[in-house]
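Hi V.,

You were right to ask for the full record rather than a summary. Here it is.
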Amino acid sequence: MQQFSYAKTLLLHWGISIEDIPTSDIKQKKEADFLVKFDNAVVLIEEKTKGDDPTYLTQRTEELERGEIHSKTLPTSRNETLSGLVRDASHQLRSSSEKHHDFRLMWFTATGAHAEGKYEQFITTLYGRTNIMEMNADQHRCCYYFRNADFFRRAEVIDGAIVAYTDGKRLSAKLCLNSLSPRYEALKRSAVVKPFGTAVEDPSAQEADGTAFILDGDLDRKNEAALLAYLQNKYKTAPLMNIDLACTYASIRLSQKEP
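Predicted structure:
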C-alpha cells in the first residue's frame, strides 16, 4: 500500500506543480520522490515520515487501560535514528541529481502522540543546535552547529528541509534553510521561500538580528568548554553555558459517561 504523502497534500493545496519520480531501472534504484516547481525554481524533494513505534504504543495503551498516568519525555537533542533518515534522503536526492533542478530539499513529517517533540528533535539534528545562556542575561539564545549537524555533513547535497508535524487534522510546516549549502543564498532569494511566509528558519538571519549564535569554528564538538569559550570570544559576551531542553507529555484515559 502506498504511504500517504503529507508533502503532496500540502503542495497541491498551495497549487504547486508536482511530478512523481518513478523508480528508474531494473535494479530498483531508489530515487527522490518528487520534482516540484515553485514558479521558476525546480526542486527535488525526498519525503520521510516518522510515527510512533508499535511496541511503544502497546506499552502506552496497557498503562492507560490500567488507569495509570503515562508520561514520556523527548529530549530536544540530536537523535541518531532521525539522522539515519537524513542520510537515506541524501542518498536518494543524489541518486536523482541528473534530473534538471535548482535545489534539493528533504521533507520530514512527524506524526503520532509526540509529533511536536519529534519535530523539534529533527530540527536539532539538522542544525546541531542547543540553547545558550549568558551570565546575568534574562533569556537564552539558540546556537547553531554547536553539536554535530546533519546540515554540515550533507551540505553539498541537501539545501534545506521542510519539517512538519501533525496535530489532529492540522499540519504545521517550516522551511529550514541550510546556511552551509553552496546554494543557500540562491535558495533564500528563490520562490521556494514564499509559501512559508514567516515559517522559515534561517541561522544567518537570526544571527544578524542578535537572536542566535553560529558556531563556525573547526572544533571538537564534544569539548563543550572549548566551544563555549569560542562563542564567548567571537561574540564578546559574559561567560556562557549551554542548556538542552525537552518535551514532556502526560496522558490519562478518561471513562466516557453514558448519555
